[in-house]
Amino acid sequence: MARLLQAPPKFHPSEWDTANKMQCASTESQKSRSERMIAESRRLLDETEKTTQKTRSDVNKKIEQRREEIKFWKQELENKLEQIVHETEVLLTFKTRLEKSLESCKEPLVIAQRCLLNRQRRAGIDLVHDEVEQELVKEAEVLQGVIALLGRTLEQTNEQIRLNRSAKYSLEMDLKDKFTALMIDDYCASLTNNTPDIRYADNAVKIEGNFVSPEDWIDFSNINIEKADKQRNNSLALGALIDGILSQTRNDMRKQCEMVNVAFRNKVKEVKDAKHKLETLLAMVMDETASQEKNIAALKKAIADKEGPVKVAQNRLEARNHRPNVELCYDTVQYRLISEVQEITKNMQRQSTLAQAETVLKGLSRRQLSLEEEIQVKENTLYIDEVLCMQMRESVYSF
């Protein structure tokens, strides 16, 4: 029991002194290390603060530069969008003009074709391939050519409008993205350490695979702008072409229309002159027919008037031929009677002109009928050209 209560061993005073010195030395050493760490930490904090401030300033500057860059390209895109929208509106106006011009060509073509069909109803010698018909055929060809040209131009215009709208869509999508990017960068520029509800974004540093390079970013907008410029220039050229086509086709149609109208006027005058001459000839033939009828009547009366004298003379000769014997003398009476009979017979034979006169009268009648038929032909031609065709054309052509 006594061994169990044995006192712990005691240290030598020198050991105590050494232990105290070691505690002091260890404490001083730890203090020095702490002071060095505090100094290093303060230097590091100061350095990181300066670096952070410098980096923040550089980032803010970069964000501001980026915002200005986006604004620049956004303004460029807006300018091109405004231009392409304007040119598309101009093309839509030209499209309307083309459609109206195309529609306005259809009825004149129908009229020209109807005129050609109507003129097929001319009769006799008037059914001639004259200048009017030649000009009408040419007018139909001109109108068909104009319709084909306007149709092709309208198709080209529709295609150009489609291309313009495609360029417009690309610009709008690019602008939409630029607007969103600018809003995001505006938000980034507004962020500070004291922004409410700011929090950590652990995966923010991760670079996704769909990032593009700044060069590709610029090229993308450049391509959209170049596409818009190309379609704008094409639209300007097409607009000038359409304006020229509309002007030229209108002039060609007006010129050919006037050529047809002049040909119609000349033809109508020509037919009227011919009809007037025929009517003059008809009046002359009718006068001559009346004269010939009077002549035939006079001839018939003259023949009838000679029948009595010739019968008397012939009966006298017949009676005197029965004188007896020597009384059958060729005396002066007999001589004169024979002479009278011969004279009257000769005069009656001269009346054979009656047959010739009747033949002439028949010829005059045939000539009168022919002239009347020809005048009717001319009247039919005048009705077709002056009434059916010319009035129908006047109701349509209004260049």
UniProtKB/TrEMBL annotation:
Subcellular location: Cytoplasm, Cytoskeleton, Cilium axoneme; Cytoplasm, Cytoskeleton, Flagellum axoneme
Chief location of this protein within or outside the cell: cytoplasm
BP GO annotations: cilium assembly; cilium movement involved in cell motility
Coiled-coil zones: 354-381
Cellular component aspect of the GO annotation: axoneme; microtubule cytoskeleton; nucleus
Role summary: Microtubule inner protein (MIP) part of the dynein-decorated doublet microtubules (DMTs) in cilia and flagellar axoneme. Forms filamentous polymers in the walls of ciliary and flagellar microtubules.
PANTHER family per the UniProt record, alphabetical: TEKTIN, TEKTIN-1
Protein name as catalogued: Tektin
